[in-house]
Amino acid sequence: MAIAAFLLMSKSGPTAAAILIVEDEPLVRIEMASSIKDAGFTAYEAGNADEAIRILEQHSEIRLIFTDIHMPGSMDGLRLAHYVRGRWPPVKIIVTSGMVKVRSEDMPEGALFVEKPYRPEHVTDRVREMVAA
Fold it and tell me: How far lies 106's CA from each of 2, 11, 24, 63, in Å?
């Protein structure tokens, strides 16, 4: 019984962080959410910045957002990243795009840029590193 409890806790125990994936392409979002869940994190999904803000307001357990830059709605992913940094400073941020390369000085402090196409495992590794820091 104790071994089963240890295995369960190591996969998605009480210390598992919640991650918000903000991506307007459903298949890309679903694949990334699946990878995040497989890594033992709780995954929330949003299709645009407005949805993301609503989810962040409702779930204080979110420790990191992974956001695409180009999305429909009131703001793009880079503006969302800056907004999150200002409103929820402890939340870690990973920004991604296949259309533009973002310079570090254009990113919020402490944010990471991952260029598309990416391997979900690569992003999951970066998520682990950032959440642990």
Answer: 49, 35, 22, 22
